[in-house]
Each structure stands twice: as C-alpha cells, then as structure tokens.
C-alpha cells in the first residue's frame, strides 16, 4: 500500500468513507454483501441463491459460485470469508450451509443440511474449518466441523438454566479470541459462550454470561476489531453499545451499557449495523422503512451522529465495511443493487512538477534570502554523495499500512477463469456476425 | 559471481531482432520474443524444441509480460497493439487503442489488470477479463518506454519516459503521486537524459532506474531522492542508441541485492546495491560486443539476451 504513503495524509487518514463512488448493478437482486478480508473482492449473496464475486479493481463480476453444480436454490442470507480469503461459507433459505474453495468455485466443497432456513453462518476458526450457524426456530445455535469427511454438527449449548431465551437468531465470534462466541435470541437475550478443549480433545462449550438486554428480537451482535466493544441491534428500534470486559483467563465476562442509539423522530428500526476499525470509534447503521435512504454514522465515544452517508435512492439493507480499501458497501432493498462509499483523494497537481507547490490561496511572492545564491557545486555534490551513504533495505516490506492494517497477511487470488473469457469472446464474435 | 548455466539454442532466422526474454513467474519456462512471434522454452528440459507461438502481430514484439499465474503471455508490438495469449487456449485478446508502437507491459499481482506504455506518450490500463480499456494516463511529453508494478504491492505503477521523468501513479485512480527528477538534470547543457527502464525493489519502496547515458540509479520513491548511483567506466558521454536491460537479483543467502545491467558493447556489470562495489564485469564472451537488450532475473537465475539472438542463463553463486 505504498500509494497511501504518497497521498495527502489528511485524506488518507479520514476515518470513514464519505462519498458514494460506485454502484454495482446486480440483476439477481442482492440480499447480503461481504468483502474479502483485504477488500480485493466483494461477494454478493443473491435472492435466487447465486453468490457472485466482484473484483474491486474493475468493479465487474468475475466468478459465480456453483456455476457447474451445487448452487443454493433460494435466497442467500449470510456469507463469511476465511481470513486468508480462500474459503467462503454461505448460508441460505434452502436450509443448507455450503463451504466453497475459491480455487475451484464451480461446485461446493462440502455442505450441511438443516431442517429449516439458515439465518446466519460465521467462521470461528477457519484454519480448522469450524463455524457457527443459526437456524430458524431453533433454541440453540449449531457448531459445524467441516474438517471431517462427514461434517459434524453439534449444538452450541452451555449450562443455561431453564429460562426461556426464545429462538437463537444471530451469532458473532469475538474478533481477537475465537473461543468466545455470542448469540442473540428472539426474547432479547445475549449469551456469551466459551469453547475450550478438554483432554478428550473435543471442544466443550461453557456459557459465560446470559443477559437480557431487551424485549424484542436481537437482530445483530457485532464485535469491534479490538474486541472491547459490542453492539446489539434489536427490533425494539434501538442499538445498544456495550463495553465488553473479559478476564484474562476468559472465565468471566462483564457487559456495561455505554450508549443507546435511536432515531428519535421517525422511530425507525435498524436493518444492519457495523463498527469502524481498531477501537471502533464509529458505528454505522442502515434504517428500516421506505422513508430513509441513508446510512447513519455515530461516534461511539460520545454517541453523537456525525455523518449521514447519502446517495442511494432506496432503503439499504446489509452493510459491510472494509478497512484496507476504506469501502462501505450496502445493498438496496428495491433494486438489489450494491452501493459503495469510499474516500476520494483529490489529485495532487504538484506531484507532476516537483518544483511547484500547491497553495490554498494567492500568496505574495517574496524572495527568500538564499533563493538565487550561487550554489557551490562541490558542496552540492558532497550532499548528494552523503545521501548515497545511508543504508537501504530493498527486501523488507512494511508490516502495517498507514491505517494500521496488517499487510503481511497472505491473501488468496481467485484464479482467472480463462474458459469464461473464451466463452464471452465467442459470444461476442457470433453477435458481430 | 555469475556463471553460465546454459545457452538457449535459438535458431536465428534472417532479419529477426531479439529484444525480450522473460522468465515465467513459476520458473519453469522462458519466453523469448523473436520477430513477431514468441518462443517458449522449458527450463526443465532445454533439449526440447521450443513451443512457437504465432501472434497476430504484423510487426516485431518489443516486450513480453507473463501473467502472475504463468498461464498467459502479453506481447507488446510495434504494430500498435497488444496481444494476450493463453499458452493452451490460444489468443484471448488483441488490445488496440495505442496510436504508436507499444513498448512496455506490466501485469498487476492479481493478474486482472494489464498496464501498457507506448511511444504515443500514454500509459493505458486494461481489464484482462474482457479486454476493455479502463484508463488512459497522459502525463508524459515523450515516448513512455518502461512501466513497472511491484510484485507484492499493486497499488502503484511507475513509468519512465524519454522526457527524462520518472513518475509514480496510483493504480486505482490513475493520479500521479510523485515525480522523480533532479533539478540538476534540467540544467545540464545536453538537456534531460531520457529514461530507458524502471524496476521496483521487492518491497516497492525503491526504484531502480536506468537512463540512456548508461547510468543506473536507485531512487527512494517516498522521499524522492537518489540513494545509489552506479556508473560505468569510462563514462559514456554520448547517449546510447539502444535501451539495454537491467534488473535486481536477490541472492538467497539474504545478502544485499545485486544490480545487473547490460550495455551496447556486450558488457554486463554487476554491482552490490549496498556498497556500490563492482562485483563482476562480464566482458567479451559470450555476447561478443553485441548489445545486451534484456536482463531478467528469477530467483538466482538471470538471463541475458543480445540483439542477435544469443540468450544465456546464468546462475548466481555467493562467494
């Protein structure tokens, strides 16, 4: 990300995108959106069961999962990328969860069927192929271990007392400690579980905390990148933000309410929520209802609304935010298109002519003391020679970009589909004739 | 020190000029542009006859670039077009939009964008999937003879032109981010020195630049100053006719990268990038005074190609 070092630092270090820059027309009607970890690709889950991957350099579709066989039959509800960007998990209303290897995306690698539609699926430990799934009208979430030939399904069930928590609607995995899992239920409970290994080597589940935060459905639980904040989106029209305090041995958990976000005027529900990077200084949400077409962005420390992301002409549904590219993507309810907000960095004209300087307004020219001094050539040469004495390192890459993202995380490149290029070319040729 | 590993047995046909030889990223093949077609040799077994790829070009090829997956080659030709050819499936695209010979090509690391530069003074970025032109960058006032994209950081692009400027661009927006030039160069009596080749270091922070007077410099792209200068003896006052090749070579023992540069008189200079010490001077044999048109390294292998079609693979061994 050397480009960031050469751009205007004030623009580069903006903490959130603010301009609608792209919209992706998707005739298949987008239901959910997820960026690949490095923001190279965007996966669109579609209402007909298709999963289309867009390239974020060209903003064009490059890959359709299951184009040979095994695609979902109904609307895709949830997508999760593995951290290396090679494996994709998709959950659908056709009652199945599928695991895809993007090196060979024409059919799913493995799949699991449940007895009702899938709400949400998420990787816990992608390296071990373990994920968590929530299913319609089930009182517990499920763990799936895809590493085995026959994927193993287990119920995520701790030592809950007999309170009726309702159905589990959503789940989240702690961003730093993958052994901590959150679930949200239809009766307003947030449950925190810990997975740990016993001597028998199988994962054991322990419930760390159960907290009733509201009376309505819990629609989303999200965790900040640093893992010390969570936000809960509830159907009672408010988003609650909690400080998440975990003891170092992961034995107990505290949740402290920090803020409650509401639309006081219209009393709207929130469709989806997302935190900004690192310490989660911002929270972004999409509004339910046809009257609002914007994303709202709050500052989490004070709870004040700082920005409204405009530009789409319809109600927005799912949200994803990529911190490498600083893109926010959201899908429209009516058209099914995807809108992308990003940071626009103005061209620096002085970069074209290094001896010019950009100034904000006219400045009266005043000759500097040494401006037209005869420069001693020897002295100048001496300076240049000195510059050649310093050590240079041509090999080592920076570990972090200026925004603090880790650059050394390896990222999978989706192989180019040459057969598709040839097919498109043949189609174009026959059209021309 | 470089030692000749083997000579590539090219049968030279009349009138063919050779100016480009490139290792495939997987190290298994080498592509050599011979006139308007490309010869692909297997490095695993050089006794095999080369695969001859007949392109649709009507004039000779001046640059070849392998796609990062080693499955395709892109060819830049004097007939103003670019070809993208899959080694098994055959031609994928013929890209036409430049209005003068195309001289340099670079793929980004994902292999989805191809960047080209031409004597029409422009740089173009192409979508490899459908062969459409995505962006034209017009920021030079002379032929743009070299473009490079760092292997591990496809966010930037550098270009070198006969107008003497080295520019760094943002791949996503096409904006110029930095121009590397000496004020001093503008003041010299002979005017600016045309740039002949640019090449990023592995970490994308430094840029190796060769100009037509034969001098090789390493620039710090971020700070914008020269951190190393490599000169040949005796200094060539006159401008050279041809842009001869150069490249970095990264020894596997982790020692300082070697700067390898070829010249019109068949000599190849190898310098230590840290100390500027001349490590080796290859003189006379094997290029016998013929211009070394291309230098390309892969791992510890380096290939040198002279205009008359003599191509050698060299192996670097640390002393």
Overall pLDDT metric of chain B: 89
CATH class placement of one domain in chain B: Mainly Beta
Number of structural units classed as domains of chain A? 1
Strand residue content of chain A: 35-45%
Which bin fits the share of residues in helices of chain A? under 10%
Would you state the CATH class of chain A?
A: Mainly Beta
CATH topology of one domain in chain B: Methylamine Dehydrogenase, Chain H
The number of helices of chain B is 1
CATH-wise, what's the superfamily of one domain in chain B? Answer: YVTN repeat-like/Quinoprotein amine dehydrogenase
Seen as an oligomer or otherwise, the chain set is heterodimer
Quote the distance from N terminus to C terminus of chain A: 45 Å
Pfam families (chain A): WD40 (PF00400)
Keywords (chain A): Nucleus, Repeat, WD repeat
InterPro entries (chain A): RBBP5/Swd1 (IPR037850), WD40/YVTN_repeat-like_dom_sf (IPR015943), WD40_repeat_CS (IPR019775), WD40_repeat_dom_sf (IPR036322), WD40_rpt (IPR001680)
Protein name (chain A): Chromatin binding protein
Features:
heterodimer, A: 433 residues, mainly beta, Methylamine Dehydrogenase, Chain H, 4 helices, B: 319 residues, four-stranded antiparallel beta sheet, 28 strands
What do these coordinates show?
Chain A: It comes from Zygosaccharomyces mellis. Chain A: Its main location: nucleus. With 433 residues, chain A is mainly β. Chain A has a single domain, classed as YVTN repeat-like/Quinoprotein amine dehydrogenase (Methylamine Dehydrogenase, Chain H, 7 Propeller). Chain A has four helices and 28 strands. In chain A, the strands form seven sheets. Chain A has a four-stranded antiparallel β-sheet with strand order 1-28-27-26, with no helix packed on it. In chain A, a hairpin with a 5-residue loop joins strand 24 and strand 25 (305-309). The radius of gyration of chain A is 25 Å and the shape is globular. In chain A, 40% of the residues are buried. The model of chain A has no long low-confidence stretch (mean pLDDT 88). With 319 residues, chain B is an all-beta fold. Chain B has a domain at 55-240: Methylamine Dehydrogenase, Chain H, CATH 2.130.10. Chain B is built from one helix and 28 strands. In chain B, the strands form seven sheets. Chain B has a four-stranded antiparallel β-sheet, with no helix packed on it. In chain B, strands 2-3-4-5 form a four-stranded antiparallel β-sheet, with no helix packed on it. The chains are: A mainly beta (433), B mainly beta (319).
